[in-house]
Design a protein that fits this description.
alpha/beta, eight-stranded parallel β-sheet, 21 strands, 2 domains
Amino acid sequence: MTMRATLGLFPTRLLAILLLFSSETFAQDAIADSPLSLCPDNTHYILFRGRPTLLIGSTEHYGAVLNSEFDYARYLQTVQKSGLNLTRTFSGAYVEPDGAFGISHNTLAPDAGKFVAPWARSDTPGYANGGNKFDLSKWDEGYFRRLHDFVSQASHRGIVVEIVLFCPYYEEPQWNLSPLNARNNINGVGDIPRTAANTLKNGNLLAVQDAMVEKFAFELKDFDNIYYEICNEPYFGGVTLEWQNHIAAVLSDAEAQFPHRHLIAQNISNGSRKIDEPNKLVSIFNFHYATPPNAVATNYALNKPIADDETGFKGTGDAIYRMEAWDFFMAGGVIFDHLDYSYTAGHEDGTFLPLPPKQPGGGSPSLREQLRILKQFLSNCDFVNMKPDNSVIVSQLPKGITARALANEGKEYAIYIRGRGLESLEIRLPAGNYRAQWVDTLSGAADPALEFKSESAKARLVAPKYADDVALRISKM
């Protein structure tokens, strides 16, 4: 289905303005390689700039572009220095009020007059959070300069950006702030209930949404470091599957005229759910709070990347999110993005600490360092040729301890132990000579490598002392 088949009541002349209006021609960075793509050798994984890549982020709350007070250059510099390579940002079709979800200093809740969106402001006062209403027939030059610069600076730092196009309006306060609500624009668009906004029965709003998708496709067409998510958490707020499929088709059709096409992600559920009828246009399947990581095993047969791209609601400490990340990757996941509340406007270096006790998640420099250790550990493995295989662990594990393994049978193994007190680990190995090394997930310190010979298809390794979790790498000599 194309956008032009669903114009509804939206005037053709106004649609043409939306599609063709460009306040300024933005000089795009040339793509040195193809954009982010599925790895041809193992489509569970991602190829970025010619190399299989695991995407790991600890991301501010998605307002880096739409919040004009947020210094994204300082933020991206911090992400790079942390050794991470992923961030996530919202388009501006959705914005939050101060205090939403109990978040202090929420970057997705700009102060009055500090919100920038894809659409230009009109001369008519009355936007709900300060300033004039929006004119949905005109693009905002400053917004797209800001978006372009954000993605460009991320590109120079080797950071991939997940562009989130839409989000459900969970409650009335979010809908009351959206430019797509009729009370906030001069075009008479969006005079509907919030639960109808992201459906195919949203009147003349659909054409505006389509035009925004096409505009993003055009503006970001020359970047190799992005992928799109259709809608954040579409299992809330009345979002329909038919509308998601429509948005994916509009994006795909828009990119068909360009030399390169970007991957499309779809957010499936919180936790886990089996995907029975995957959309053929979707390449990445996103889950939130995916712990334990059952979403990976349940959908591994799809042969597509599985992501855990939002964490939280388990306190403000580091350990629980570090262990969620390790568990997820060792189950075969490919993308992990922690929601990091230590980033705020004014603390773009991630130092808004200590976090308020009621903050709905964690984040800190120490957690980012722990995620860097995880990234380095896995990057030193030939993970493209490995797959989740917990059968290599033959020990009877003590209560409260779990073990997960990635294996390339007889060649390489990566094992993660979660839970205190393991003294030794018995592993099923083909006969041969091996090298093993334990790695501290907190400090990254590695024990001296142990060389051993497996003769009976089993090997027992003594575990070092550790706090909450520890990792083990075994390779054939």
